[in-house]
Structure formats: C-alpha cells, structure tokens
Amino acid sequence: MADKTFKNRLIIVIIFVAVAGTAGWLWLWNKGEGQPEDIASGNGRIEATEVDIATKNKGRIAEILCHEGDFLQEGQVVARIDTKTLEAMHRQAEASVEQARQAKKYAQALVQQRKSEVVVTRKDYERSQATYQSNKFAIAAKQLDHDRAAMEAAAALLAEAEAQVLQSEAVINVSLGKKEEIESILSDCVITTPIRGRVLYRLVEPGEILPDGGKVLTVLDLSDVYMTIFLPTAQASRVRIGADARLVFDALPDIAVPAKVSFVAPNAQFTPKAVETRTEREKLMFRIKVKIAPEILMSHLEQVKTGVPGVAYVRLDPQAQWPEDVRHRKLP
Predict the structure, then answer these.
(1) 8 A C-beta contact, residue 300 and residue 225
(2) Is the pTM of the predicted complex or chain greater than 0.85?
C-alpha cells in the first residue's frame, strides 16, 4: 500500500515537473528564446509592391507578349491593342493637314496678287486725282470716283486674302492637333511596363475588348520587396525608421538577408489571424515594414520569390548585437 502511494506521488511530481518545464520553455519561446532585449522579431512572408499595367484607352487586345512568371525589364513591351481603325483615322488626319497646307499656299499666292492690284489701283487713283486737281476739265469727276472705288475694292480683296491665310493656318493647327492626338493614342496602344519585375497575373487574352483603364497584367515590383511583421507597443515604440534588420527565410535557413525598417504604423491594430506572432492575438500590435536592401535585390532579382515565410529581426538599439543564431548565418 505504501509503495502504491509512493508511486502515485512520484507520478504527480513527474507530471508537475514536466508541466513546469513545458511552461518555462513556452515562456522562453514567447520571450524570444533568450533573444536580446534590444532585438525584436516577428514572423511574416516576403511581399512586393503589386503594379497593375492597364490600357489608357479602350480597344481590342491584339497580342499579349508575356506570361505569368516572366521577368520583365523596365520599358519592355508587354501587349498591343488593335490599331486598324486608328491607322485609318491617322491617314485621314494627314490628308487634312496636307489639304490645309495647300489652301494656305493658295491664300498666300492670292495675297500677292491682291497686293499687286492694290498698287495698280492706287496709282490709277493718284494719277486721276492729280489730273483732276490740275485741270478739272481734263478728267471727269465720275472717272475719279471710279478709280477711288477700284482702289478701295482692291484693298478689301487684299484684306480678305490675308484673312484666308490666317484661317488656313488655323485649319492647319487644328488638323495637326488631331493628327498628334491620334499618334498619341497609337503610341498608347503599345503597352509597356514602367518597372522591372515579374508577372504575377495575366488578366486578359488576345481578342478581349477592354474599357479605358482596363487592366492587362499585374506585375510585382522587385525593387520594393519587404516583409510585414507585427510588434507589441513596448517594442514598436523603440523601432526607428531606417533601423537595421535581418530576414531569415524557411527556404534559406543558412542565410540572413540585410534589410531596413521602412515603415512603422502610427496606430495600433488587431493582429490579422493569418499572421503568426509570439503574443496573444487579442492584443493590439503595430505593423512594421522591413524592406530588403536594394543592392541585394539588384544582384538577386531572378531569385526573389514572394510568399516565402520567414522571421524578421529588428535592432531596437543601433549598437545591439544580433542573436547568435542570426550572427552565424551567411550574408547573401
């Protein structure tokens, strides 16, 4: 009976020690597994800024020149919109410009003719006027009036011809404006990517008709790759913009990627359920954005993959030493 009681007590002690040990281990884990107080850490996934490549004007997609997963260079052509109708309108606009230029040439020639007529009629009038003033019987007043009217008519025709020149210039400007507008639309029908990145989604296929601003592709901007983590108030209040960080990925456990803190949320929020943290989810947390160093990205663009899980370590004190397991990892 005594042996049985002793065994029961021993079992209780063993269970107590096991529970206490487990609780202690969990406490240490929640505290960062012995992590220095001046280092904060959080779990997250690699993300990149998503850029939607869209049409400026409506039209039918003629071809898509890339697929999901393709790596794109800045300025690379990714799609084209059908331009048959626009090309016909462009030819018509060019013809209108040429027609307006010919009309201007005709108006300019007419101006020269009218100027000559003004010179001739003025001389006739001046001659008649001089003769009439010297000898009123040498020329009739009616002839003087006729020459005056001819001179005034020639001046009016000259003014009309000069107005035609100005009008033809205005028509040329309007026609050129229409032509340039069509050329701009034609240029916009060649869709390019403004960034270096990887195609995340191909949203349309050739033959589909898109409205103004219709989305064609979603591209990941691989110059802006980051991990979002959540930290409690005590740690977030010590995080400064530009603070050094290290990212350790599950897929690359031997490497610690240099990074910088690029954003600290001004307000606390509830931690999303999809993000794992080492504190209770009910507590308010601050969102921290840790961005990978640009020089690292530029030399490893082809290897960058979004969605990869990992841990971000952030220096709360610029002089703090990295945890031993981070310090011993290689830099990329």
Answers:
(1) no
(2) no
